[in-house]
Structures are given as structure tokens and as C-alpha cells.
Amino acid sequence: MHEDIDHRVLLRPIETTSRRYFVLLAVVLLAILSFVIAYAYQLQHGLIVTGLADWGSGGGATWGLYIGAFIWWVGIAHGGIILSAAVRLLGMERYKPVARIAELLTIGALSMAGLMIVVHLGRPDRFVTNIILAYPETVHTSPLVWDVTVITLYFVLTATYLGLTLRYDIVRLRDELPDRFDPLYRLLTVGYRESEDPVVERMVWWLALGIIILAPLLLHGGVIPWLFALLPSMPGWFSAVQGPQFLTIALTSAIGSVLVISLAFRRAYDWGALIGDDVFRGLGLWLGLFALLFLWLQLQQVITGVFAPPIDVDAATSAKLSSPIYWLAIVMIVTALGYLTAQAIEPRYFTIPRTVFAGVLVVSATLIEKTFFVIEGFLHPRFDMYAAVPGSYIPSFIELSAILGTLAMVTLFFMVIAKVIPVVELHAIEDDASVADWEVEP
After folding, report:
1. Which residues have a Cβ under 8 Å from the Cβ of 224 and sit 6 or more positions away?
2. Are the CB atoms for 109 and 74 separated by under 8 Å?
3. Which of 62, 78, 272, 428 could form a disulfide with 96 if both were Cys (CB 3.0 to 4.6 A apart)?
4. CA-atom Rg of the chain in angstroms
């Protein structure tokens, strides 16, 4: 806990706007503009402008970077809210300063995951006709619609979780928050009474428990991998190990992302005392653990694919092991794990920049690996009608601009939200005794 820190520290992002902020804002808006232009071009000419293809005599993959990014963003979102829920549920006080950052990351990442689906559909109206209007029928049989359902559920749970925890902070900091957002603050705190605080704490605890339970059962440990793992015609996908594998990807990519965002806020607003070295050291250890699990599950799939496998599994595994892209992702994970292991054994090797760089390596590697996973599943099906022309896939500039644009949108989301609400909970700098010291009008 950081009870010796003045609460005004939390308001620095709201009260301070530096020149670097406007420079970053310009870069972010430029990246978003490039994505908008690229997407407009895709809407005008169709998905043919991407590296995607329809199955047929030309071969290729009908899913590519868009779906890889969808899995990646969903993983970051699920891992983020799992981190926040674990802080509250398990009493992990050290990580309270980054709990709300993880919650906000979940909101931003889930939004980008939904956007990737819309972009991938080619025509946005298909989301209405193929998913919303057809929902009563497709929800019974379509893993893709199951994905949409659980993502919506998680968005609602996370928004509720965040809204409940914000009420406490806004009421106590209201006199120091900007008046221009008063309608929003009134909406977020409508009906507030101080007596609700213990009730809200219990509600948030139960929400956290539900999130922890749902994650491995329905989300990145269940429904999302079922989209691939239930298809026996795709030997590169069909596997009972996909659930645990996807869950490790969610946790590693989320922790890596929280490390990056936490360092950005720490440096921008001189939050060294608030988000201390121990937070980065601890997150680095967790990152190393889940990176190790990621590699172990990759080994399980490789061993199954090379030791006396069926012909189709052998072909899919051989293609994977001969790809430099796959090995690039593995080397990035191994490099990050090597450093994180070294700092765990010998603390003098620990530095925050190195730990955050390890997080960047892991986050990048998970995007590469999941995109490769999606593509290879299509390029090596069990019943290959067009074996003579297997085709290939290379992400287009249009698709790459979508990755850049969504990263910029999440950055913009944090830049804007940090000007409206505290991105660190007031509880992170309070002890139990100090909570009673706040005077709140009934």
C-alpha cells in the first residue's frame, strides 16, 4: 500500500498536459487516419485488396492477420481483467496501482477485437445480417457467434466492474476533478450513498470471482479456442491443448501490455513512488511463468506432431517447423524468458526497461504466433482438394495498417480517459484506517 502518498498524485494526468502529450497525440491521430484511409479503400474495392483469398484453385487462406489480431486483442483483454480480478480476489496489494490500468486495457482491447471482426467481414452490414439478425439460429451451432456472445458478456462485466469501483474515487475527488466533465461524473455517481461502499465491495468481489471462473471455462480457455479446436478437418488447429495454450497467450500478452502502459504513466507523470519497482519485478516474474507455460504447451503440440503422427498432422507440423516466422516467435519468447529467469535468480540483473522490453517481445511474439497459427491451419487442411496449388499468404499493407490503427486507438483511449478519471484507484494509496477519514455528504 502507498498510504504515505498524497492523493493529488493520482490527478497529475488530469491536471498536466505536456508538449510530449501533443506530439504523441499527433502521431496517434496520423496512425488512425492511415487506418481509416486503408479501410475505406478496402470497403471500396473489397477484401481482394488484402492478402486473403477464397479457397479454390488459387489456394491461400481465408483468415489471416485480421483474425490473428482478433485473437490477440481478445487475449490481452481477458488477461487484463483476470489480472485486475486476481488483485481484488486474492488480496494482491502490490499490484493495486496497476489494477485499473488492466481494467481499462480490457475495455480498449475488447473494442479493438470487435473492430477486427467488423473489418474482416468486408462489409459492416454483414455483422447485422449474419450475426445479430441470425443470432437465434446461429447461437446454437456457431462457435463464431459463441465468441461474440462471450466477448459481449465480458465487456458488460468489465464495464460494470470498472463503474462500481469508480464511484468511490469520483465522489471523494470530485472537488478536484474538472468541471467540464460534471455530467459524466453525475451519471457515474448517481444515487451514491456512503453506506453503499461495503455493499459495492462485496459486489465487486463476486464479479471478480465470476471473471476468474469464466476465463478458463468460457473465454480464452474455452470458447475462443473452440473456434479452431473443434475442426478435425484442420490438423493444425484440432487439439485439446488449444484451450490452455490460448489462456497462456492471454495472460502473457496482457501482463506484457500492462508493463508497457505502466512504464508510460510512470515516466510521463513521475509515478515512481506510486508504481514502484516491486510492481515491475513482480509482473516480470508472472510473465516469465506464463511464458514458460506457453513454451511447454508448444512443445506438447510439436511432440505430438512429429512422433509417429497421422499423415495430415505430420504435414501440418512439418510446415510449421520449417517456417522462419514460427521460429521468430519462439525465439522472442525464449529470449524474454531467459532474461526474466536470470533476474529471478540474480536480482541485480533486474531493471525496469529490460523487464518492459521482455514484455514487448512477448506481446509481439504472441501476435506473430497466433496469426501464423490461423494461416497455417488454412494452408494445410486434412482434405486438400487443391494440393497442386497450395497457395500462400502475405499480410498486405491494408491489414498492417489495421494493426497500427488499433494500437493507436488504444493509445488514444488511454490518453483521453486519463484526462477524465483517475487511472489508479484511490484505494491504492489508502490504508484501511484512512478510508474513514474522507468526509462524504450523504
Report:
1. 71, 74, 75, 147, 150, 246
2. yes
3. 428
4. 23
Query: Band of the pLDDT at 385, cuts 50, 70, 90?
Result: low
Range with lowest mean pLDDT among 21-35, 308-322, 334-348: 308-322
Q: What pLDDT digit, counting tens, does each position of 138-165 carry?
A: 777 777 788 788 888 888 888 888 898 8
Buried-exposed string 207-238: b where 16+ CB fall within 10 A, e elsewhere: bbeebbebbbebbbbbbbbbbbbebeebbbbb
Report DSSP state, residue 10: G
Which pTM was predicted?
0.90
Q: Do 392 and 380 contact (CB within 8 A), yes or no?
A: no
Grid cell listed for 150: 462471450
CA–CA separation, 433 and 435 (whole Å): 6
Q: Each residue of 162-212: pLDDT tens digit?
A: 898 899 999 999 888 988 999 999 999 998 888 888 898 888 888 888 888
Q: What is the dihedral of CA 89, 152, 401, 29, to 10 degrees?
A: -70
Close Cβ partners of 166 (under 8 Å, ≥ 6 residues apart) = 188, 421
Residue showing cell 511432440: 303
Closest listed residue to residue 365, CA positions, set 284, 286, 295, 262 = 295
129: pLDDT confidence band, cut at 50, 70 and 90? confident
Which residue ranges make up each domain of the chain?
7-435
Overall CATH class of domain 7-435? mainly alpha
Reported as type and span, the H/E element at residue 161 is helix 143-173
Report residue 320 as a C-alpha cell: 510449421
The Cα–Cα gap between 229 and 220 comes to 12
The CB-based long-range contact list for 87-93 (8 Å cut-off, 24+ gap) reads 88/204, 88/205, 88/208, 89/205, 89/208, 89/209, 89/212, 93/1
In three-state form (DSSP H/G/I as H, E/B as E, the rest C), the secondary structure along 13-51 is HHHCCCHHHHHHHHHHHHHHHHHHHHHHHHHHHCHHHCC
Phi and psi angles of residue 178, each rounded to the nearest 5 degrees, phi first: -65, 135
The b-or-e profile of 279-317 (16+ CB within 10 A means b, else e) is bbbbbbbbbbbbbbbbeebbeebeeebeeebeebbebbb
At 439 the pLDDT is: 43
- Calpha distance 399→167 (Å, rounded): 39
